[in-house]
Sequence to fold (256 residues):
Amino acid sequence: MSKLLEGKRVCVTGASAGIGRAVAIGCARHGADVAVNFANDSNGADSAVAEIEALGQRAIAVQGDVAEAESATRLISHTVKALGGVDIFVNNAGICPFHAFLDMPAETFERTMRVNLHGAYFMVQAAANQMVKQGHGGSIIAMSSISALVGGEYQTHYTPTKAGVLSLMQSTAIALGKHGIRCNALLPGTILTDINKDDLADTDKRRYMEGRVPLGRLGQPQDMVGPTVFLASDELSGYVTGAALLVDGGAFVNLQ
Fold:
């Protein structure tokens, strides 16, 4: 396998499990050293680090709640100290505590906003500042969602954050283009992770969701690796910025 990210330093938020973990290890398979951010799952983060190191790459785990602005500068400073810099930043951390709209607790709404949108803003800002300081550009990739484009009855607090992340990548693409920093968004469909494990425990609902996908299955975290590496690679996507790539098995276009 060609190593498309040879010599690059990658930082991934929310990388102890799910999409973030798959992306972190996938980048290492392509030759990158990786900083793994995690909130609480130290065992998951440590095992991700071990798997990356087994591939012959350097890796560190950095704990931090992305909802806290100061955790962004701490994550980047730890990454720079351990790996020497940041060339690729993947904003992945997010939550989606499903809840009805009419009785949405204020704290649930506010926590979702702080993690998904405020966290993305300050994390991307910290990574961008480091890339500007380094002076040789970089790639910033944010995990938005198909939910940026469609609504969800129990996601009225979540869908606006993912639309905001998509918009953030469009605006930062403009703001950072003069520094050679590319900013793009990935829009996953339904990916089988802890974020929707309880919601999809209902067999009938899972079958219904699978039936809406033209490719006939729900996504796996590994499905996000290739698109991330594509957007991270200067060789493959050096002229791609401000873009949004759906990775949903065709769900969005299946309106009939």
User: Anything to note?
Assistant: Residues 9-246 form a domain with the Rossmann fold fold (CATH 3.40.50.720). The longest helix spans residues 106-134. The two ends are 39 Å apart (CA to CA). The mean pLDDT is 95.
